[in-house]
């Protein structure tokens, strides 16, 4: 409800849904790396992830075994201004820099 009333802002929500309850059309048609990402709401995080992301949400985290690393920060996500394609390009770039093969 806070999101609908404009009282709460989430850069990842802006990327996936914007103001639409059902999600943006571009989000519904997503393919490639962003379709294979596991999307976890803040209240559904495993304990170790919740501790790691404390006060840093929203963000994109990469898990490799027991290692956690922030790939995209809150500030980076906010700078995308809800653009799914900018998000996809940024995520692919960060994964390449991490030598992650997808």
Structure overview:
- This protein is of the alpha+beta class and 102 residues long.
- The protein has one domain.
- It contains 6 helices and 2 strands.
- It has helices spanning 11-16, 25-28, 33-36, 47-53, 74-79, 84-97, and strands spanning 60-64, 67-72.
- It has a two-stranded antiparallel ribbon with strand order 1-2.
- It is globular.
- The N and C termini lie far apart (36 Å).
Quick synopsis:
The protein is α+β, with helices and mostly antiparallel strands and 102 residues long. It has helices at 11-16, 25-28, 33-36, 47-53, 74-79, 84-97; strands spanning 60-64, 67-72. The chain starts with 10 loop residues before the first helix and ends in a 5-residue tail after the last helix.
The biggest beta sheet reads:
2 strands, antiparallel
Multimeric status of the protein: single chain
Provide the low-confidence segments as ranges: 1-6
Q: Report the sheet-strand fraction.
A: 5-15%
Give the terminus-to-terminus CA distance: 36 Å
> What is the 3D shape?
globular
Strands across the major sheet, in which order?
1-2
H-E order: HHHHEEHH
Mean pLDDT, nearest integer?
Answer: 84
- The computed structural class is alpha+beta
What radius of gyration results from the CA coordinates? 14 Å
Let me know the number of strands.
2
User: What's the number of domains?
Assistant: 1
Number of helices: 6
Q: What percent of the residues sit in helical stretches (DSSP H or I)?
A: 40-55%
